[in-house]
Design brief:
Number of domains: 3
Number of helices: 18
Oligomer: single chain
Strand order of the largest sheet: 1-2
Number of strands: 8
Largest sheet: 2 strands, antiparallel
CATH architecture of the largest domain: Alpha Horseshoe
Strand content: 5-15%
Helix content: 40-55%
CATH class of the largest domain: Mainly Alpha
Shape: globular
Order of helices and strands: EEHHHEHHHHHHEHEHHEEEHHHHHH
């Protein structure tokens, strides 16, 4: 965990500006290599094109920071799902069970971390959007940098609004004292701001980059996130439009589902938005992603912590013979496709294979699996959103085409498993699409929010204490309410 970078934004309020410079090395993704000591005062920054580049690079490097990719996102975005259990040992981080049992309260530190992490991301983007326009630099690069910042801001607000509902909408860096403490903004306005940013970003961002800039967000990423934002609002015509546009951009399903998530196949043909993580030689502090480490197999020399493990309910959700089951779940006692033998007497019966890094790639002195990227948006999700939108709009026959594409990749030519879905009954097809989303996107931090947006929270989560009218969202951090002197109000039921 990077402890020595100064926090840019405490929640939605106090702000201290430090521009994090980037040390450029020979690696292709030099924007990941943040020099925490290389900070300059704001009055000396925002002068040159190099300053703009450094700010954009720092914005990306922040995405693999602890509160953006590790414990807090697991708690807020995954633990409520029926696909997962806490993992590790019973006494280790038992507070994670509060999210699984819907007893987490406003004082829970992971809620505070998640909130602060997303507003820190928003602050990185707002610094760029407020200051880069005044820099004399290449015009097309400036426009691209502003579009990238708008996407990242939209991404952070997307995560906030689906987790908390109404949240403070901050589109500029505060300048006057009155701008620091602001109330919650109705979620409809937050969604509208997200969509505006994504419309602006998609109009400017390129479809692809040269190898030196792989990992920067693209037009496809903006359109895909816009489709997801529309899906959460049930704006099905928009979902259909945006997914159709993405489907025309040349993305393809990666042939091998299991290998799609390995470090040797980063940024593949299916990946649309991927948080870039890497092991930077001689720089453990910059190789700071703990996404894989906290979910890695326990009991291995130098191995992971074993949190956020697949549940028995998820294991049972796959159709017989579906290879995605073994590609998603590492079972105790198995040998992985990469040859790692998993102890048959380990602490947990299952682990997340999508975050797995082969043990041979662990390097002493570095976070285990620090080079594992986090795929946030991928083409299979686009196809399933397209199928759902078509079905909701009454075009069930059209919905079968993208649904079948996802199932065909999964079956890999073995027609004895995963037969095509043929029903055009809207209700039956809706259920089939929901089931397909679950098994295709399992352990990718969408299932919990999918069930809620589908209106199935009580049916799926009710046995664990989920209550309609309360648990559609998490509580706001009590620390933020206190800092606001009560201007921020708490979500109902908390």
């Amino acid at each position: 965990m990077m402890k020595n970078r100064k926090k840019l934004l405490q929640g939605a309020f106090g702000i201290s500006f430090i521009a994090s410079l980037i040390m450029f090395q020979s690696c292709k993704k030099s924007f990941l290599d943040v020099n925490p000591a290389g900070n300059v005062a704001a009055s000396q920054f925002w002068k040159t094109q190099a300053d703009a580049t450094s700010a954009v690079n720092a914005m990306y490097a922040n995405l693999h920071e602890w509160t953006n990719i590790a414990f807090a996102p697991i708690a807020v975005e995954s633990m409520g799902s029926d696909d997962v259990e806490k993992g590790s040992t019973p006494s280790d981080a038992s507070f994670m069970n509060d999210f699984h049992n819907f007893t987490a309260n406003s004082g829970e530190g992971q809620i505070d971390d998640f909130w602060g992490g997303e507003y820190k991301t928003i602050n990185f983007a707002n610094q760029i959007l407020d200051n880069v326009p005044g820099i004399t630099m290449d015009g097309s690069l400036k426009a691209r940098y502003l579009a990238e910042a708008k996407f990242i801001r939209a991404w952070a607000y997307f995560r906030l609004v689906r987790a908390f509902g109404d949240v403070p909408l901050r589109l500029h860096v505060p300048k006057a004292a009155s701008e620091y403490n602001i109330p919650r903004t109705p979620k409809a306005q937050v969604w509208a701001a997200i969509e505006t940013d994504l419309t602006d970003a998609a109009a400017v961002l390129p479809q692809s980059y040269s190898s030196a800039d792989i990992g920067h967000v693209t037009k496809g990423a903006a359109l895909t996130l816009h489709a997801k934002a529309a899906m959460y609002q049930k704006k099905w015509s928009d979902v259909l439009s945006y997914t159709n546009q993405v489907m025309a951009l040349g993305y393809t399903l990666y042939p091998n589902y299991e290998q799609m998530f390995r470090t040797t196949h980063k940024n593949n043909s299916e990946s649309i938005f991927e948080i870039q993580n890497m092991l930077i030689a001689n720089n453990p502090a910059a190789s700071n992603s703990q996404y894989s480490q906290v979910q890695g197999v326990r009991g291995v020399t130098g191995g992971g912590w074993g949190f956020n493990v697949p549940s028995a309910d998820l294991a049972a959700a796959y159709e017989a013979g579906d290879p995605r089951r073994d590609a998603t779940i590492i079972f105790r006692g198995e040998t992985t496709p990469e040859g790692d033998v998993i102890d048959a007497s380990g602490d947990n019966p299952m682990y997340n294979q999508k975050s797995y890094v082969p043990f041979s790639l662990y390097v002493s002195g570095f976070n285990e699996g620090c080079q594992q990227d986090k795929i946030c948006l991928r083409y299979a999700d686009v196809l399933l959103m397209n199928a759902e939108a078509n079905n909701e709009l009454g075009s069930s026959a059209a919905a079968l085409v993208p649904l079948e594409a996802v199932r065909a990749r999964a079956r890999g030519g073995n027609n004895a498993i995963l037969p095509p879905v043929t029903t055009t009954d809207q209700a039956a097809l809706r259920t089939a699409i929901y089931n397909e989303r679950r098994v295709e996107l399992a352990m990718e931090f969408d299932r919990y929010f999918d069930v809620i947006r589908q209106g199935r929270g009580t049916a799926v989560f009710g046995s664990r204490g989920w209550k309609a009218g309360k648990n559609e969202v998490w509580p706001l951090p009590q620390n933020e309410i206190d800092l606001s002197a009560g201007l921020l109000t708490q979500n109902p039921g908390y």
